[in-house]
């Protein structure tokens, strides 16, 4: 089966993995960022969720002024007798240009509850120096610590780093070594690192990353029949694979191994995805990412990925294709930050609030600007896709001229580009500070909130909007090569981050900077992502040039043409569809013996008709996703040129519902490939469970956990995505006595004129009913569907009240 790499995109290097029962846990390096060591979870090795971090307290991690590339390197995660261990080391000084490093003392933290990041212990430090540390428990209970540091006796006459693997036994209670360290692996390349030791059968195996983490990177294996101390036999097929400098994936290595519940072995490795620019490769802005490859054992030697190069489209048993979503948003509606925000270094003080102004992240800028090694008031997220749009809305009224707040494209304190708000005696102005080139300033006309936008793609393009303007003022851009320029000291071991900041020049910023509605969204309209036409849906659009409304500036004419297309589509759908009563014949609470399968089609169910190609809007994610992505691109184009903004905004609210369903699908732990025409919900306990089905519902949000009706009555999986248990039961109990096609249209609200004013709206996390809103036309038409759902009515009135609209007290 084919699947997509990387499995965890963006800055996620040096992966280490462990399986506990059906759960896989994976950690990656964080270097100079806090909190340290992200922990990802998966049950199928394809879809991963960030569940927390291991180092979240200053008592666990103190990094204050490291060079780029300093901080926490190459963590390892292990599980032994009910306890999770994470082993790490933190460089406080890293200056490879001068061969000036302070070798860190490694440490480990542990917990019995990996789901609660607060339970990780304070560090137990080892008395040995080194990085890329690994713990191995032998069958007799002896614990071995392997790590990398420079050989005591350097290679004579060779200009090598002489980084080699050393091993000793260790007392975990104290961290003290109980034997002298022994060198067990050195490399002719001068670098052997990333050691992991495993026991399989009668052999101990030593895996090492060699050649450095750049273009010479590779993975090697040795084995021993005696002990982890050796002697070691070199593998017959080293390196285990090799990606070159002309491949789509490069710099691969640093493997860790895991065996799944079916006995299949896998390796997780790091790699980079450079971008082709002419005849050359441009460094990836995303940094080193996490890849997955299958592993087989032949003659008691590992064979990784069949010995072949690692590619973006890979093959492995039991896996499936999945694209990590681009879209993400934070409305700052909780009292704590979403997981996935990072600080540069360990912060000295608490300099933000999520409660002083609800639904805003309020920053009180500290005395360090973004160009100093210390920790500024800055919150960062990893850029996970090359092409995306980053957007935030900022309210900031500076009182003095030496303060600034804004958004930043961040690699390190030498290489970053920012766009922010400042003040002088004439008033506020926008300041664009690129990583390369001249600073640009533009005067602001109002004192309203400003939307700051960064389009990421073949370059980083920076812009802003004042108040309710519809046109982005593009102020400047930075090439990807300039955005990834190497620092004069340290190294680029990380990837691009996108973030928010506020600072004063050697003084605290007394005026708060309030950020709202932080969004990462789909492809912006850049030179590398143009589309030739607005969205078209097969068989319902027109080839008539008089129907083409793109580019029209007259809203009346634009609406007239849209209505003509919608009316034509509606009439055609009515001709082709069978007539159904949208209301059920009964809602008596007795589960229907019939399957409440939803065949959402725009046209007839007759497969033989050449005029009736089937469009399964709510049940074929590939088709819908394609339509939505094309629509979103068209919307971005119209947004940039002011044409036709209002119509696209109306439709985007409907598109957001589909995105909500897709996210709830992922939260449940299901795959889009379960959504075929005749699918039956895996929640239904009357059926044999699919081998891919989730074995436990404990990780599913409460509102999405299956009800008794969902478990006992056959139904299509799409009905499981609504965040209201009673609404799901109403639909399932109604059996086939309702028009599923019409409901789909009324939810999405953009295929026909008759449904233009109906639908559902989603304003936040889709699993939380408080973020949903139902429109009054939908209530009138589908009253029975939402019967017994007062929480939806309360949420609806809450959103209407925020907009100053009349509350609804009827229908429910």
From TrEMBL:
A family per Pfam: GH43_C2
Keyword Endoplasmic reticulum recorded: no
Region (Disordered): 529-616
Gene Ontology MF terms in the entry: hydrolase activity, hydrolyzing O-glycosyl compounds
InterPro entries with a match to the protein in the record: ConA-like_dom_sf (IPR013320), DUF3425 (IPR021833), GH43_C2 (IPR041542), Glyco_hydro_43 (IPR006710), Glyco_hydro_beta-prop_sf (IPR023296), Glycosyl_Hydrlase_43 (IPR051795)
Swiss-Prot/TrEMBL site (Important for catalytic activity, responsible for pKa modulation of the active site Glu and correct orientation of both the proton donor and substrate) positions: 132
Domain Beta-xylosidase C-terminal Concanavalin A-like, residue spans: 329-516
GO biological process per UniProt: carbohydrate metabolic process
Compositional bias ranges of the Basic residues kind: 558-577
Similarity-based family: Belongs to the glycosyl hydrolase 43 family.
Database matches in PANTHER family: BETA-XYLOSIDASE, HYDROLASE, PUTATIVE (AFU_ORTHOLOGUE AFUA_7G06110)-RELATED
Protein name: Glycoside hydrolase, family 43
Lineage, broadest ranks: Eukaryota, Fungi, Dikarya, Ascomycota, Pezizomycotina
